[in-house]
């Protein structure tokens, strides 16, 4: 069994922008296969069924409107953040069932990170972290063989209260813990510090990306911080730490990058693949 998750890194983010369905399909594959599809997530293929497209669907969610029980989609190396859209290729039968059911209902899926020795128990119920990020299906394409391509738009952190049985896929009762956008508001000094840190960590390409995303497109605040957390080449566990940091996410990001830079100076692993 192997899993292959691909996404656009900071080194390659210039052609893309947060919330856009343009990017890489993230494919979860078992049995020795791996897939990485690039291009428009909702390109029509012959015989395919474009079920729906709802750009900005996640932004319409409020806590009062959210379901108390949601399906869980556990993955080993993907941590979603609010305000970030991720394209997913769904082909495992239980997750096809999940998508088919939620697409006609609340369209909400809880992305959550696997932990521990998950490979041994993958087809059962391996352990997951208690905090994840929910996304709303913003675009969905059913392929002729029953697989799906979809765009999931992250909108809120959640905490698992208890898992609920009754489906082939995992479900949980959750507590919604959204981080207020105001909690991640950046003043000019913080913006300058963040840019300097990114350039030190990633290189000059970060300056080009900053020009494109911040100066030209006006990305700022929570959306900027969350997008950087999602795109950075750091470990899934570090990204999970950032997700759980909530309102302290920016400080946590600085701490992680500071450690990585010191590690690099000491001859440890770098931050660029």
Structural write-up:
The structure is a single chain. The two termini are 24 Å apart. The chain is globular and about 50 Å long. Residues 1-46 have low confidence and may be disordered. Strands 5-7-8-9-10 form a five-stranded mixed β-barrel. Strands 1-3 form a two-stranded antiparallel sheet. It contains six helices and ten strands, in the order E-E-E-E-E-E-H-E-E-E-E-H-H-H-H-H. Helix 5 (236-245) runs antiparallel to helix 6. It has two domains: 10-176, Roll (Archaeosine Trna-guanine Transglycosylase, Chain: A, domain 4); 181-265, no CATH class. By secondary structure, the chain is an alpha+beta fold. It has helices spanning 93-103, 188-202, 204-216, 221-231, 236-245, 249-265; strands at 22-24, 26-27, 38-40, 49-53, 69-75, 85-90, 108-113, 131-142, 148-164, 171-176. Helices cover 28% and strands 25% of the residues.
């Amino acid at each position: 069994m192997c899993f292959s998750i691909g996404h656009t890194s900071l080194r390659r983010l210039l052609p893309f922008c947060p919330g856009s369905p343009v990017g890489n399909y993230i494919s979860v594959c078992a049995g020795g296969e791996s897939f990485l599809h690039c291009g428009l997530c909702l390109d029509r293929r012959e015989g395919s069924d474009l079920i729906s497209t709802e750009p900005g669907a996640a932004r319409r969610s409020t806590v009062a409107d959210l379901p108390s029980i949601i399906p869980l989609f556990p993955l080993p190396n993907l941590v979603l953040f609010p305000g970030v859209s991720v394209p997913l290729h769904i082909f495992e039968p239980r997750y096809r069932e999940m998508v088919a059911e939620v697409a006609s209902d609340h369209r909400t899926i809880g992305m959550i990170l696997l932990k521990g020795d998950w490979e041994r128990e993958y087809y059962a119920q391996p352990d997951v972290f208690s905090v994840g990020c929910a996304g709303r299906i913003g675009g969905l394409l059913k392929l002729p063989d029953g697989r799906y391509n979809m765009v999931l738009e992250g909108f809120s952190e959640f905490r698992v209260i208890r898992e609920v049985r009754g489906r082939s896929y995992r479900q949980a009762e959750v507590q919604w813990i959204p981080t207020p956008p105001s909690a991640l508001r950046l003043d000019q000094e913080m913006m300058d510090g963040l840019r300097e840190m990114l350039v030190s960590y990633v290189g000059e390409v970060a300056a080009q990306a900053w020009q494109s995303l911040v100066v030209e497109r006006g990305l700022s605040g929570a959306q900027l911080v969350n997008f950087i957390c999602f795109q950075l080449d750091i470990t899934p566990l570090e990204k999970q730490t950032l997700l759980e940091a909530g309102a302290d996410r920016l400080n946590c990001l600085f701490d992680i990058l500071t450690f990585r830079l010191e590690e690099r100076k000491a001859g440890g692993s770098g931050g660029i693949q």
